[in-house]
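FAQ: What does the model actually see?

It sees only this:
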Amino acid sequence: MMVSYLFAGFFTVIIGHAGDSAMLAVIFGFGAGFFITGNQTCANALAARLYPTNACATGVGWALGVGRLGSVVGPVVAGMLLAIGWSTQSVFLAAGLPALLAAISVLILGRVVTARNAAVPMAEQDRLTA
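And it is asked to produce this:
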């Protein structure tokens, strides 16, 4: 997921450099959408795996809700930034930052889960994942 988030951020940033080329904008937009959408699906599965069974639906629901909020607020903020004079490249650079933060978060989460699993005996891990 970390690598995919990095690709999502990369494609998001380079959309702003497509210039007047509609073909480049479509290709870069497809790349950004591909990696962002793929990561959303993986993030849902990851959240379902990380939350305890009695809180799984609530945790995944909140994660989805926050994601939807970002989908609504993001374009509004981008429009406001353009209105106050930000360049297109700057707006897409700022839009790529959440993907970088997500990549870092997934890396940290992976290390925390690995350390936690190392501290739990194997028989207990099997019981928790069943």
